[in-house]
Amino acid sequence: MTKTALLLDSLRAYLKPRAGEVPARFLDGLDGPLPERDLVPRGLSCLRLLDDCAERTGLPEQPLARALAGGGDELAWGQTYGAGDFGEAFLENYGWMELIGTRGHFASAAIAAGFLLLGPATHYPDHHHAAEEIYIPLTGGTLWSMGGAAPAARHAGEVIHHPSDVSHSMRTGEAPLLALYLWRGGDLAQRSVIGKGR
Ligand SMILES: [Fe+2]
Fold it and tell me: Which CATH number does the domain housing residue 64 bear?
């Protein structure tokens, strides 16, 4: 089995017991055969954080984080922003990898699923997008804010829902963040819009 197929298996195994917490409309697109694309792998500076993140996850999150870390240099990581958006230091501490989606390792037009990495002491400012989103942090300690509300610390395994076009932001403390994301509805390849949404 390829590393990407192992990661897909781990993702499905992690989400299966969470069917009561993650709305079915997000999970439906994960079932069935998903054709694999032959993507060119791409590494990023933030991947240095992966092994540390895999050590810091909650217990149920550990196999998934380890499968991601084990994907090593075969995965295509990306960044939405440039240095002009949030600065160079942000780019050294930020990246995402789309496992499923319109651009991901496994093709789907209905759902996007992937992972976000943020380094310690990193602020990912308010941004929003048309797709509604589920985030499940695999590591705890990050402050999450939605719709301009006061930031709140979220623990590993919590299910966070961001409705369409509602802005959200994250701020890490001493620990890095590894989070699983799911997108549905809207343009699944949309570049997030920086700033306040609705
Ligand atoms: Fe988002």
Answer: 2.60.120.10
